[in-house]
Design brief:
With about 170 residues, the protein is α/β, with parallel strands linked by helices. The chain is built from eight helices and five strands, in the order βαβαααβαβαααβ. Helices cover about 45% and strands about 15% of the residues. The mean pLDDT is about 90.
């Protein structure tokens, strides 16, 4: 089976991925595909750069390009988890596999902001208001090649509320 993960920043997608990996799933990430492309171009790996490169790849090669790249790496004899699905076309491409399901990981803004602060990543929003503002452009766009987390989340087969602690 293939479990795809979508959700907002700091919702807990990585934790779900790690849980599944401990259960024998093989991990893949659409964001890792973008990171590889940014490194090839000699770009600094920042959230801003990754968003820009991902949007550019989707614009140039089609909305499902990252998902297509991942699917070419998968066999039919294992369980997989695919993290960082951010565009509805990526879901459409992955649904070509009958063994694919999409899980949305959700948590409220205040909880996610606190998690972001605990991560301590350079360049991260320093206020809840800034965090919310930065996220708005990832949630929806008229540009079909941009991140569209809200529309992608609505395509989920399963929604997991992750407002609580890891335990």
């Amino acid at each position: 089976m293939i479990i795809g993960l979508t959700g907002s920043n700091c919702a807990g997608k990585t934790e779900v991925s790690q849980y599944l990996v401990r259960g024998g799933f093989e991990y893949h990430s659409l964001s890792d595909e973008v990171r590889q492309e940014a490194k090839k171009r000699g770009l600094e790996i920042t959230r801003e750069v990754l968003i820009e490169v991902g949007n550019e790849l989707r614009s140039q090669f089609g909305g499902g390009v990252l998902a297509q790249r991942i699917l070419m790496q998968l066999g039919h004899d294992r369980n997989y988890v695919i993290d960082s699905i951010r565009n509805p076309t990526e879901v459409e491409v992955l649904r070509r596999r009958k063994d694919f399901i999409l899980m949305a990981v959700a948590a409220n803004e205040a909880v996610r902001f606190q998690r972001s602060m605990l991560r301590g990543r350079e360049g991260a929003a320093q206020t809840l208001e800034q965090f919310i503002q930065e996220e708005k452009r990832e949630l929806a766009s008229d540009d079909p090649s941009s991140q569209q987390l809200a529309a992608t989340g609505r395509m989920a087969d399963i929604v997991v509320n992750n407002d609580g602690s890891l335990e």
